[in-house]
Amino acid sequence: MIREWIWAERIPLTRRWGVAVAALGLVAALILMGQRHGFGVLEYLQFALDGLRGGSIYALVALGFVLVYRVMGVINFAQGAFVMLGPMFTALFYEQKWPPDPGLRLALAALLAVGIVGALGMAIERLTLYPARRASPLTRIIITVGVYLTLQGAALLLWGPYAKVLPSFTTLSLLDPTFRFAGLRVKAQSLWIGGTLIAALLSLGLFFGRTTVGKAMRACAVNRLAARLMGIPVDTMSTLAFGMAAALGAIAGIVLGPVTRVTYDMGLELGLKGFVAAIMGGLVSFPGAVLGGLLLGALENLWAGVTVAGFKDLFAFGILILVLLLHPKGFAGTEAEVERA
Amino acid sequence: MRRAGFPSNTVGFAIGLPLILAIGGLEAFRPMGLSLPALTGGLLTLDTMIRVGLFTIILVGLNLLMGYAGQVSLGQAAFYGMGAFFSAILTVRARALGIPPTLVEAWWWPWLVMLAGAFLVGLTAYGIGRPILRLRGHYLAMATLGLGIVVYILLRENLGLPHLNLTGGFDGIQGIPRLRLGGILLWPAWRYYFLVWLFAFGAIALGLRVVRSRVGRALRAIHGSEMAAESVGVEVSHYKAQVFGLSAAMAALAGSLYAHFQTTVIPATFGFGPSLELVVMSAVGGMASIWGAPFGALTVLLVQEVLRTQLHRVIPNAQGEFEAIAFGLILVLIMLFLPEGLTTGGLRWLRSRMGLRPPSG
User: Fold this and answer.
1) Is 0.90 topped by the overall pTM?
2) ipTM
3) Contact residues, B window 143-182, toward A, CB-based 8 Å cutoff
4) Do B153 and A149 touch (CB under 8 A)?
5) Which H/E stretch holds residue B356?
């Protein structure tokens, strides 16, 4: 039951093979292009491994897209802004003097930031999407675009255009240790990011599988009217789902913070790529979104390795168009769900 | 559904045309030292009015797509850019491409390029829209989002062919020639202003025509309910792809006109941000309203102008991006409180205040 809900649909074997063949073809093309640079297996593995770091972030962001889409039927383009606000607030609190222990301070700052962004998400849902709950999906999508622009503008007003810095979670300094094994390099922060993704997946699974609120939220996603008739406060569930998605976005931004430049406009790229990852997964499936994110991150980095650097972003959005043209259901997702988009 | 809108369209042309002519005449002759900036306290310049005209052309297409067919495009600036760069490349880099100089020198060459560009871009959009629009809902929005960014990156990265240097990368293309009509150079600016507004009114007339036609009725039916429209024999994906192609062609035409106006094109003008800006303009003017196009463009450009001159006092370090601050708020507020936009929503409000019956539908 929960398994079916999470996957949305078991993928038919033929379609799975089709996707596998397409992916293999893509990998073969990447390897062929890499021949010009004389890359060996180790280089490819390193590219893919580095890409998984970004991919985990896309996956976390994509989870937020899927959550909001399933419960509310809205594609939430404001998600990127929450990804930016997470590390922004964390950096703000980390810069304070209290508590004196930097580790404790970072942990508190991160917790506080996630809480604030989650609450902000809920407030925004109440103020913008809730009053427009009867409006057309078009109107609601445009509202989320407006929310994104507003939040980004507010961040620019509050913090200016300069990049903020978050310390590495391991050393609490700007230097992040690198581990080596079998000739591959992994940054410590990458392990934090991967661990966060796993933890997020597990807690989402527990939330939807074991808690009453989670089950109520699932009911809203399946049939809003029936859920309302069963006495579930569907509007509250929407608000909660939106807040959860915002918090997920903030977490993604915070764990990425130490290995990127935290600027007011960092949310655009991450939000859009998380969106691409969600589409790759069919927009309705949590594991699909995670798979989409990881695959997108790894392939994108391979692509950037074998072509010029300026072409890196071309991959994600090229994939977006291809997926929509050829296989709009993604890895998972039913016809009915796709039509609701 | 609203009827053909006979009185309001007549009123629109009756007010719009003389107003535009008056502004053009004022700038052309500058009687008694009067000029547009002097009369409006520096808020409006001929430059702004030309931009309003260009955006009107794009917005009429975008409104047909968003307001009438109910499909949001988050990448409309890409078609604008495709038109602009098509014109720029085929006029400035024509010789490098092996096109005979006699052809390039001819006065009609840029016009031919402009038409060909609009046609090709429209065809491309139709080709992309056809398969995607078979799916219901907002798949087009997602695809246009991807398309917009892909086109921007391709323009920025020289289409992936750095040795040809077709688009000029980040710096774009300079030295695009001014348009000529036979022996008449369409410059100084007021001459170009008349040209742009000729096209803009053409676009408005075309838009009104489309709305009133069989296609327009089909589009409104699709917006109402795709399933119902399909069940009475409206070929939904066909119409949607058609209007998508038309809106792309109009954006490309505006792009060509922009290229010959600015004489310089850079990829940044056609990125994701500008696409959102077009959506804001469309929402402000009123998506389901052809006359909303010039109003939306003018309002947003005026807001931008005020911000440009005033806001740097609040945030001294931000350059270029500060307009976005107000855009988001405007967009949310309009969608929440005046989802029909300033024109349709404003007129409805005015009518109800004057105790008149609101228009049917």
Assistant:
1) no
2) 0.85
3) 143, 145-147, 149-150, 153-154, 156-157, 160
4) no
5) none
